[in-house]
Specification:
The protein has five helices and seven strands, in the order αββαββαβααββ. By secondary structure, it is of the alpha/beta class. β2, α2 and β3 form a beta-alpha-beta unit.
Length: 183
Amino acid sequence: MRNWSGYQTAKRDLIRTLSGTVLEIGAGNGANFADLPDHVEWIGLEPNRRARARLTRTAAGRRVLAAGAEDIPLPAASVDGVLSTVVLCSVRDLPATLLELRRVLRPGGRFVFVEHVAAPRGTWTHRLQVAAAPFTRRLDRGCNPARDIATAIEHAGFTTIELDHYTMPGLIPIPFIAGAATN
């Protein structure tokens, strides 16, 4: 378990490892632009119509796709990297999404992720996440805070996976993971 104070640095450093053509899923309003290297050819994937309209303005000529991560409108092996920051909690089908990410990644490509995840089963935090899930799914664009994203990534078939665990301190400690997987 890593100290939360290192989380922002880890996130920035992971994003800066990306190169070539990078697909960002659930790109939102383009909050990660500042951390992406200048030489990256960025493609944004955003299924939400309103967010996509804002993203298109923020992206300033970069390519923005209207689709969910379960069905990416790109050819196989067409990107060098995929970026996901606090998105996998809200995809409709997590295993299908991870398969789709592997499909569009070139061999040796990197999937960089920073995600909030389910707390360990049996903890009060996990019980609270399960209880909150019906509300967060409805009010927060489908977010399921009790989703076991780390295990799903570990079972998705990537050749290597490196990840660190963080906990956001507070009244309700929120577990996060940050890492990279290679196709």
